What does this fold into?
Amino acid sequence: MADAVPPAAVEAFDPVNSAAASVTYRIRQQFSYAYDGPAHQLVHRLVVVPARRHGDQVLRAFHLAVSDPAATVTWERTTDGSRAAVVKLDTVAPRLDFDITVVVERVAVGGPPRLPASALTGRRLLTPTPLTTPDPTMIELARTLAVPDPLETALRCCSWVHRKIEYADGATDITTTAAQALAGGRGVCQDHAHVLLALCRAAGVPARYVSGHMIGEGASHAWVEVIVPEGVARAFHSGGSGGPGDGGILTVSGTGGEHGRSPGGAAACAVALDPCHDRPTDRRYVTVAVGRDYHEVTPTSGWYAGPGRGALTTTQRVDIIGFEPTATD
It folds into this structure.
């Protein structure tokens, strides 16, 4: 077994420029709801725990704690393979907390997420959703940006979105559509992702929304995965096509040591692009869930009966807690 990496080395580790066989991350989140009146028959959905395997990312452990021991927790799998916890309560206390700790590892030999060949032509990731429906101007723009290479098309769209939408917290909300965000010229990472999704799909490039985290940010982040032929994705990730080289508490716990199975007959891969920063993702990013748009992978959502109004406060911290040097280090 390799010697443990000293804490000082972990603290100084650069996830972008330092070579490592693997990097381990710990994500801590808390969602706290305060109710100003009676609330009951709560059904709450949390999409905060990653799948067992997503490309080079492996779930190692997770822990979900609900502050009310009377709560029941069940787990569901979304259409795109993401994990969702459904919490139910008959009577809601004035304060309800959800505390989540997740440990994931990104391994150098993992490669990008693999999908069946049908993902390249299937309608699910090509059909607009209400949040990503392009207007006529966006459709014409997609035609202008499109080139024969689907990945080059996506990269051109990514750069265009970054230039045209100024990051402005509070300028939009979770109901803002891609067309509205583009017309306003301002938005947050969710809006950048929705506009990129709209353009890629209009150009014939299948794409999906990614909910996750980024080192150094105090809130969840969002980006896009475009689906391209496997050979194109692998060349890009290896740098062969100008891409980046890889550099009273109820508790629910588990481990994610199983890698799972790659889709049978996989001939497509996902390439992750961050239009908010105009770059491919790297080891600063941790994926939680993928879907067609934000509504499919909302981190925290739900409903209840009663006159009480719920106010949400959140905290989040993402840390690198270890890494394994490469054999030559």
